[in-house]
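Input chain follows. Return structure tokens only.
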Amino acid sequence: MNLQDLRDELATRAASADQHSGDLLPGVQQKIRRTKQRRTFTALGVVAVLAAVAATLVPTMRPTPPADNPPEDYTRDGLTVPGTVGNDKLLKAWIGDRGQSSLTFAWTPTTNSITVHADCEAAVGMSAIRFRINGWYVGDASCDSGPDSWAIDSGVTLAPDSAFWLGSPVGRPAQVSAELIDLESGKPAGESGRIWFGIYSTSPNPPSSNGAPARYAPVDAGAYQKDGVVYRRTIGGDTLAAAKVADPGRLEVRFSFTSTGAKLSLRPFCTANAGSGGDRNPPYTVEMRIGPRQPFTATCDASSTDAGKGGGFTIASPAPAGQRVDVVAKVLPTSPNLVGLPPDVRLGLGIYFQGPQRVIDGMELPEQTEVAGYRYRLAQVKTAPGPDRRLVADTPADQPYVVAYGGSMLGTGEFRASLTIGKTETGLGVAPDGGGMGIGWDAHGAAPSERATLTIAEGKPTKGTLILAIYLPD
């Protein structure tokens, strides 16, 4: 999630007076590890298959190596696509001609866990290669004509749980397009560039952050499942109230549930923007009407077939305990000039009862949470006045843990916070002018105890509360 994504999300959330104010610390989940002025993009979850574009060019490519032979580098005109990038193994390689900044070609995936690594030559300063498969946005792979282009975190990945595979399964021929773009404008970088890249098989396991355990959470008893989309019964401390996934191409779902009086977490699943993920203003939204209240809107997105795990936004209960609540969700265009929708749009909505929360200066910390497929419980909370600008806690020894960090409204102006574990900065948060810090999450694997430090690096707090909390495996 980049800063523009965060601004858009915060703007959407601010439209609701009942919005949970502590759901997000802008930017904290992005690790700041890059030493160059480049951006790393993660693949957005995408789905469904669009009628393929005619292949205008079949670029130079290499055959898939036999399973018992390690892949070799592919070299042409002095350019090289590495046979391996870390543990990723090359499946196909393409090197365009000089002055060729876009390619379209046919390819058949043989695995549902792939990463695209790339490099380029371009006249513009900050460039990336935008990838689409079957017309659907996969992601932007950063490139700078240097060895860092082939770093593990510079590519874009389609993981086994990506919603993309619902409509484009392994073994079915696909059309791939690659285009050099200017990162600042998001527009094509012109015809003077050159691109080369490879599609690699990558680990089917989810990536681990700071050595923390990570997995695809198993489907539990009582989960809602349809056409490959899953709403698990429990996620952290939240419990599924009801869910429904529409048939492909249907733009509306309706269902009902019985209120318990608890707050609700709304978690939509929508693929209408799958072909426009690189756009700064996605063309479609999801409108959700919960009971008699005014409708809520959210960005149309589907990052995983585990549809509830990405979180959502929280609202107060629309009805007393024991009362029936009717739900309607539909896909809507953001502009009246938009005509038609992709024919195989998938839409779903899950409603969860929020679990117990610990409230600190208006901020809510869940007593139980889920990070990277594992469940954690709140074990320790430390606070300090915002004007102190600094808060310290010791991490647990020899067991995995999660640090929740952030704070309430600190005053006026913009604030930048950093989380340091030992001597390493592991998290960053940015609060816009007039906005609260929210809560960010930072997972770690078992290690000796260290000092966790939350610091307000920019801005002068005049009020509010800083928060550091430690979660342990449940």
